[in-house]
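Incident review: delayed structure delivery

Summary: a single-chain prediction request sat in the queue longer than the usual turnaround. Root cause was a stuck worker, restarted by the on-call engineer. No data loss occurred. The affected request and its eventual output are reproduced below so the record is complete for anyone auditing the incident later.

Affected input:
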Amino acid sequence: MDISQIQKQILESDEFVLSEAQKVRYLYGLKKEMRYNQTRTETIRTESVAEHIYGMCIVANYFLPLEDPKNKLNQGDVFKLISWHDADEIETGDILGQSKTQTDRDNEIIAMKTVIENTPAHMQPEALRLMKDYELQSTPEARFVKAIDKIEVSFEIFDDNYREIFKKLHTRRQDNDKTKLPYIQDYPYILRFCQVISDEIDRLGFFVK
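Output delivered after worker restart:
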């Protein structure tokens, strides 16, 4: 099946979208594989920021041919942006988008400077460029990566683990949509996946009413 056929199927069939989502989820399997013969013993499975970044790489690989069939985006910058976009969270930790305040955003700017200062000198100029680009959303690559950031978690949440996390965080459908939809409107296939997956987990009772 070529790209144009896949694009057509995505826009026409919810079942195809959900099938594709499950195939992407299969590649997420590495998120759960522990190195050095170690295991996680938690009841509710957690995820590190680095595992999220890996997921974004998989999702970007999936959507790049769909959203950018003429290869206008600089793919090198896309994957560099993915690597650096959350580096400030080394200092701040991860904060839920639905509860983030202006103070949190101000702290992210301070944290970004700290991360740069503690990065090897020869890496600093590129890291600063990428982190500023993402913060300001100043290039098509940064805006695409923002959309990937928002859709990545949608592929993660097809299991009871996330049903429990949604209950714990009191996540409502409107919270989910508010943190995603403003950033994905210009990407029809990402938007379509977001809508179909959100409708499905809503139907399954994941969201708090």
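Verification: The two ends are 40 Å apart (CA to CA).
Action items: add queue-age alerting; document worker restart procedure.
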